[in-house]
Backbone:
């Protein structure tokens, strides 16, 4: 493989989860998304639901981001908040999985966890076709049509806040990624094809 790891951040309704799983299947390598939280839950003795709630409660405050990054980089884990502990635990699990071999990582600031690793491609999946996005949210998540907008905004805000608070970077800043794909224009299979070529 030319590259060993792909990290994927994605908009809600972009099909990013499907893309990650299909890519991993075609390459015959693992895809780690919820598996990261499951491993953290097991290692830390914290319920899966509690970890998800920590992720959702993270603030987007710039001062909090600076504080978090300073504590993580200095190794002062005793002063971390609960969600800070979860983030550090996720970083450790992602690195642990990466040491086992090539893989696809979905969300959880994996690009930050693997920044010292070689042969990593950081990807952002978006969907600029609103109708396609809406249909995916209905079909994939069974969200009632009248709730689509509020649910999409909630999940995108959660992902954006978590990314910013733990990396100090803007989630939607395309300079953070090596490649940005629009699944509304090239489709799920098209995205998989592009990413597969980067790996093979």
Residues:
């Amino acid at each position: 493989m030319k590259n060993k790891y792909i990290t994927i951040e994605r908009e809600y309704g972009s099909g990013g989860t499907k893309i990650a799983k299909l890519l991993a299947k075609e390459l015959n390598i693992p895809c780690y998304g919820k598996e990261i939280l499951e491993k953290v839950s097991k290692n830390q003795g914290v319920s899966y639901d509690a970890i998800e709630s920590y992720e959702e409660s993270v603030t987007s405050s710039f001062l909090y981001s600076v504080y978090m990054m300073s504590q993580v980089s200095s190794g002062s884990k005793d002063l971390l908040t609960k969600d800070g502990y979860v983030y550090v635990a996720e970083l450790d699990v992602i690195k642990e999985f990466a040491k086992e071999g090539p893989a696809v990582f979905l969300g959880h600031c994996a690009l930050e966890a693997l920044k010292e690793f070689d042969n990593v491609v950081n990807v952002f999946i978006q969907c600029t076709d609103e109708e396609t996005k809406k249909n995916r949210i209905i079909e994939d998540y069974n969200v009632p049509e009248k709730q689509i907008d509020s649910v999409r905004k909630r999940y995108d805000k959660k992902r954006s806040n978590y990314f910013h608070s733990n990396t100090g970077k803007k989630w939607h800043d395309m300079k953070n990624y090596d490649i940005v794909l629009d699944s509304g224009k090239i489709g799920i299979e098209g995205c998989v094809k592009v990413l597969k070529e980067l790996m093979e």
